[in-house]
Design a protein that fits this description.
This protein is an alpha/beta fold. The chain has 2 domains: 187 residues, Rossmann fold (3-Layer(aba) Sandwich), CATH 3.40.50.2000; 175 residues, Rossmann fold, CATH 3.40.50.2000. 41% of the residues lie in helices and 17% in strands. It has 14 helices and 13 strands. A 7-stranded parallel beta sheet has the order 3-2-1-4-5-6-7, sandwiched between helices. Helix 2 crosses helix 3, helix 6 crosses helix 9 and helix 7 packs across helix 12.
Length: 375
């Protein structure tokens, strides 16, 4: 039995939910899992399906908590952990220090994406220190896992991680859960007060600047000028919500745009939609895009980050430059008018996720990494 502890910064809704999927899907006869939250647990914990998984809260203090590595080392020893699996920059240094203090040598670190601020052209002292730290301490980690080739390339080129140290394992989706459901589509539309023939487009994500939702509202307003039987669903919450709602109001869109906030029925909401749109300035490997494709939706996404690794333009989805509102308008219009196009691309999208981005494929890849670490 291989005993793994996943170290996350906190356990709210977001990309780190994929740790839950991984824990749920690992072979219970071979792996035992626990989760350590450097801050506190959160909503993602409710998605755990295994009763044997323990969650520990470290309640990290703001700023530099010098006691944290020692407390983490104690936790690792007490629970006889064989492998520590840390997630993203917020856990990197503490996990390395805790593992060293505990005398552990098996450490996997996962990077789902860099913060948006990492991509500003102007170097800052903080950014340089982060890059230097990531490079300096990388020998202490067995493997760094990037969720896309684009992120792997940035770690090699910008940070200086040796190519042999970092591998790519894409995020995976539970394709048996996220699947097309006609009955759900009809019932949920009725619940939301949406007509059966209305063309519903939408997006799922944190309402933050990096998601670039302002351009989506501007494009939607232009499409609405030519046809009124369309509606936009915005699923998620975040710091830009009030600004986006104000933008929708200023464009006179409130009767055609619904801000649903954070939801626990994302799969059902996706089944309501006809088109999924994600106009981000940057993405790692978008879980929302994979879930939408798995449900059989045509996805219109910006040509950034890992998006072009998932979407084959005009075959399994559509790509546009994130600053080009004209292209976005054109693609929305084309998909709104083309039922057969949506059906064809949506079916191809689901097949691509099932073949290459399923949770089964992801779990198999991580299982091999864990086994290699202990060899």
């Amino acid at each position: 039995m291989i005993n793994i502890m996943y170290v996350v910064y906190d356990f709210g809704i977001g990309g780190l939910e994929k740790c839950v999927d991984l824990v749920n899907s690992l072979d219970q006869a071979e792996f035992r899992s626990s989760i350590c939250c450097l801050r506190r647990s959160g909503d993602s914990a409710r998605k755990l399906r295994r009763a044997d998984v323990k969650i520990f809260e470290m309640c990290k203090r703001n700023g530099h908590d010098l006691t944290l590595p020692f407390r983490l080392a104690k936790l690792l020893k007490e629970n006889n952990i064989d492998i520590i699996h840390s997630a993203n920059w917020g856990t990197y240094l503490e996990s390395i220090a805790g593992a060293r203090l505990a005398g552990m040598s098996a450490h996997v670190h996962m990077e789902q994406g860099m913060e948006f601020g990492e991509y500003n052209e102007t170097d800052t002292i903080k950014r340089k220190l982060r890059i230097h730290s990531q490079r300096l301490f990388s020998p202490s980690v067995n493997k760094i896992v990037a969720v896309s080739e684009e992120i792997r390339g940035r770690f090699i080129d910008r940070i200086g991680i040796i190519p042999e140290k970092i591998v790519t394992i894409p995020n995976g989706v539970d394709t048996e859960f996220f699947k097309p459901e006609k009955k759900t589509r009809k019932c949920k539309r009725s619940e939301l007060g949406l007509g059966e023939t209305t063309i519903i487009m939408g997006s799922v994500g944190r309402l933050s600047r990096v998601k670039n939702y302002t351009i989506l509202l501007e494009a939607f307003e232009r499409v609405l000028q030519d046809r009124s039987d369309i509606h936009l669903l915005m699923v998620g919450d975040g710091p830009e919500r009030r600004e986006l709602e104000h933008k929708a109001s200023s464009l006179d869109l409130l009767s055609h745009v619904t801000f649903l906030g954070q939801r626990n029925d994302t799969k059902d909401i996706l089944n309501v939609m006809d088109i999924f749109i994600l106009p981000s300035i940057f993405e790692g490997l978008s879980v929302s895009v994979l879930e939408a494709m798995s449900v059989g939706l045509p996805v219109i996404a910006s040509n950034v980050g890992g998006n072009p690794e998932i979407i084959q333009h005009r075959k399994t989805g559509f790509l546009f430059e994130s600053s080009n509102v004209n292209d976005l308008v054109s693609l929305i219009t084309e998909n709104s008018n083309g039922f057969n196009l949506r059906e064809r691309v949506g079916m191809a999208a689901r097949n691509r996720v099932v073949d290459s981005f399923s949770l089964r494929v992801q779990t198999k890849s991580y299982s091999r990494i864990y086994q290699d670490c202990l060899r």
